[in-house]
Write a structure and sequence with these properties.
This protein is α+β, with helices and mostly antiparallel strands and 117 residues long. It has three helices and six strands.
Length: 117
């Protein structure tokens, strides 16, 4: 995926919500994007999930250790501790917007988006 596309998504989200979205989701801005993608690349091939994440980039990490991946058309939110993930046909920006409107993706704390809406 074109890195400028995901960097633009991160930039737009950080402009509207800050880099610590809902006081829970840490956007991987600037140098964090490259370093965190390298550090967490091993998750792409772990055996607990059946996803092919090679084309995905990590764009955020939550305080609970949830990982937010995007490949240009599909967003994956995963929680390795509980071996759960959800895959959504959305951009990072659309996901944050949905969370701010009360969307519950089954892993994030209830009422998360309502805190800073």
């Amino acid at each position: 995926m074109d890195k400028s596309k995901i960097r633009n998504e991160i930039s737009v989200i950080s402009e509207s919500h800050g880099v610590y979205v809902f006081d829970f989701i840490n956007l991987l801005v600037k140098d964090l994007f490259e370093s965190e993608n390298k550090e967490y690349s091993f998750i792409k091939s772990e055996s607990w999930h059946n996803l092919n994440l090679e084309a995905y980039d990590l764009w955020a990490v939550s305080d609970n250790g949830d990982y937010f991946w995007w490949n240009g058309s599909q967003t994956v939110v995963m929680n390795p501790r509980s071996s759960k993930f959800i895959s959504l046909p959305s951009t990072p920006r659309s996901l944050i917007k949905a969370i701010s409107k009360g969307y519950d993706c089954c892993m994030l704390p209830e009422g998360l988006g309502n805190q800073n809406a």
